[in-house]
Design brief:
about 100 residues; At1g16640 B3 domain; 3 helices; about 25% helix
Length: about 100
């Protein structure tokens, strides 16, 4: 039901933002009244070592951007380290 409320405002690409600051661009697929993440989601899952028993919490922040919290099998939030390489790349791009 939640997706129906935001479906029209979602672009073709969603941004998944995790607490470490890393941002993932994931393709949004809309087909036959269903909306799901597609291209890029597998890489997101592999990078964070997400298995079938992990729980992901999504908060929609608008503009096709989601804040994602990843919890382990004990339902405790996983605190991933900041990716220094990505931070350096972001700094180079912005200035």
């Amino acid at each position: 039901m939640f997706v129906k409320k935001i479906e029209m405002e979602l672009s073709d690409v969603a941004r998944l933002c995790v607490p470490s600051g890393k941002v993932w661009n994931v393709k949004v697929r809309k087909d036959n009244g269903k909306t799901c993440f597609q291209d890029g989601l597998q890489e997101f899952m592999e990078y964070h070592s997400i298995s079938q028993w992990h729980v992901l919490g999504f908060r929609y922040d608008g503009n096709s951007q989601f804040h994602v919290v990843i919890c382990n099998t004990s339902a405790s939030e996983i605190n991933y380290p900041c990716d220094l390489h990505d931070s350096e790349e972001t700094d180079k791009e912005s200035g």
